[in-house]
Specification:
The protein has 435 residues and is of the alpha/beta class. Helices cover 37% and strands 12% of the residues. It folds into 2 domains: 7-402, Aldolase class I (TIM Barrel, Alpha-Beta Barrel), CATH 3.20.20.70; 405-435, no CATH class. It has helices at 7-16, 63-75, 105-123, 170-190, 204-207, 222-225, 227-239, 275-287, 304-307, 321-338, 356-365, 376-380, 384-391, 405-411, 423-434; strands spanning 34-36, 39-41, 45-47, 79-86, 98-99, 128-134, 194-197, 245-253, 292-297, 343-346, 371-374. The strands form 2 sheets. An 8-stranded parallel beta barrel has the order 3-4-6-7-8-9-10-11, surrounded by 5 helices. It has a two-stranded antiparallel ribbon with strand order 1-2. Helix 11 links the parallel strand 10 and strand 11 (371-374).
Length: 435
Amino acid sequence: MFQAKTLQEARDAARAAGVCLPLAEDTSALRTPLAIGAHTVPNRIAVQPMEGCDGTPDGAPGELTLRRYDRFARSGAGLIWFEACACLEEGRANPRQAWLRRENVDDYRRLCDSIRETALKENGCAPLIILQATHSGRYSKPHGVPEPIAAYRNPLFEKEPMDAARIITDDGIERVEDALAATARLAQQAGFDGVDIKACHRYLGSELLSAYTRPGRYGGDFDNRTRFLRNGIAKARAATAGDFLVATRLNLYDGFPYPYGFGVRVEGGLAPDMEEPLRLVRILHERLGVKLMDLTIGNPYVNPHVNRPADAQPYPLPEDPLAGVARMMACTRAVKAALPGLAIVGSAMTYLRQFSANLAAGAVEQGVCDVAGFGRMAFAYPSFARDILRGGCLDAGQCCVTCGKCSLLMRLGGTAGCVVRDPYYARHYRELTQR
């Protein structure tokens, strides 16, 4: 259990776990602006794309969606990375997932306008807003029941071999690329500053990176396995204009052995191997002009200890959670060291609770990342960014305790939020579990 009451105790806990974390005394580094192309992020704090599962059936923002982003706007975070938004109905992770279409583009435009207006009024500056465009792949549930669309059969995930009809064809992948480009065009029309061609957490774009056993144009060697992401980014760029950013949230490491994991050695083992991830990031940045990436690792459905370190998981913990935080820092640092001109959002800050602000500031100061991303913390403590920026610290009594119930709400088919800190979701959780 994370029990540190002082910053020194947090450092001691990391040392006892055999790791060193960049914990800074002073958090003022998070107040500095960051230029990304023609855009300026007013500070170094980001709200990560945490899905609420609370849109309308036709994909527009629902009441709870508006409530959540109003809170994020008031917080003062310099970057709001809008949650996963399906590019096709077949790729929705649930019947209430965001789904940007021509029919609801005005709803999203009003939401973007509201975020900026509220942020300007409350904080004197507007955040950069990025839309995450996705296809959920093997985790697709557009009608509330599993309707997987997988890149390849994976015995690590499947109790029974995947039906061949559920393996997406090469032509089907091209159709998804075109749909992502169409979503990027709509995102620009809606007023977003950029789009994220999602390639993380084993959704379709991420799974294809490890498609070693897949035949055809999208499997086997490095060029084929990265083709979908490269094409998706290139097509999104061609579909948009001006200073619109085309970014990606990218898994550097899956935490599964070859041939089912990206970022590991072909010879075997689970240790991160950054050779291919660095090669891919370099191509995206230097050849395709990607200026902004949000980096992460792991799979929240199968090995959540890798990307969401917590005091408890649905299985025995294989390591100290602080070791998981350190792994995330090391992977991100490797990219930043190799490509210092690329703007990087880091992840896995929340486990440090009230000291996550110190971890974030240290990560920025020491060149781990340029912007510190907060996911679960934003659900639990919507004003977290304001408290860091104005007071330099976080209130331990409002921080996320990494209980995982926000994710459990999603698995139960509900809307996601903090069960511990938000009375609405506490009631919702009780109702679902009793049912």
